[in-house]
Amino acid sequence: MQFALAGASTIVITGRSITALEETKTIVQAATPSCTILPISADAIDETSVQQLFDRLPGIPDVLINNAGVSMSRTSIVDSSIDLWWSDWETNVKGLYLFTRSYLQALAGKPGIILNVSSSVSDMISPNLSSYATSKTAVNRFTEYIHAEHSKQGVCCIAFHPGGIAETAMGQAAPEQFRSRLYDTVNLAAGTAVYLSTPRAGFLAGRFVYSNWDMEQLEGMEDQIVSEDLLKSRIRLGEQLDNAVIPPKETKSA
Asked: What letter does residue 95 receive in the DSSP assignment?
């Protein structure tokens, strides 16, 4: 909705259920009749299905939002179902990879914008959510790789936590320990996505941010964020370990 209100001429929405997509189309076009909504059914974890979707597009999108996400495994690792545990990675990582790959191929070296929906749990240890949390950590790191490999062609890729939103399917199924934090809205997440797609947010490329942060305050920290390379996944070695690497011994030539 927020992209339509911001003036987007065409928005492609995708998912497995064409019925749900048509319902979304009706809601958005009722509010913004000038915006064309194209619902296309696709399976995010099927390579052929994803490529067929891109083949049907009327043009190359200015912005790709990777929003597909599930949290199916919610128990300890020892008690987990292999299929449920891995299904989180299939959707959250493989699906994002397939869409990103097809989009980058469609760009053919031209600029573009990729927004990856991550999660706050990507940066914390949350027992019984090992599959979901680690898959979102992978999303953050994958975002950094996209930036490293494609920023020179003008691709801006940012990962963001959409916030705790009670009315989404993920929010309604949230574990008990997170339910007190579900105070954000869909409009906040969508509005953040619009902001992140603008040149003002370019300094956040390759980084992970929260939708419920003060973006103007974040802009005021731009120099620090860039110079200290903040908002990226890192292992903290500490000063002593950082300088503890033993260089290889030089071998004498015969």
From this structure: I
Q: Which pLDDT score, from 0 to 100, does residue 253 have?
A: 59
How does DSSP classify residue 63?
E
Residue for token pair 């929405």: 13
* Alpha-carbon gap, residue 103 to 14, rounded angstroms: 14
pLDDT less than 70: residues of the chain: 166-167, 169-176, 179-180, 183, 245, 250-254
Radius of gyration of the chain (CA): 20
Q: Which two tokens stand for residue 83?
A: 């299929």
DSSP H helical ranges for 93-174: 96-107, 130-150, 169-172
pLDDT in the model for residue 1: 86
List the helix and strand counts (H, then E) for the chain: 11, 6
**pTM reported for the whole predicted model:** 0.91
Please give the distance of CA 66 from its chain centroid, rounded to a whole number: 5
Distance of CA 155 to the CA centre of its chain: 15
Q: Which helix (H) or strand (E) holds 10?
A: strand 10-15
Give the span between the Cα atoms of 11 and 141, in whole angstroms.
27
For residue 40, what are the β-bridge partners?
Answer: 14
Q: What is the DSSP letter of 90?
A: I
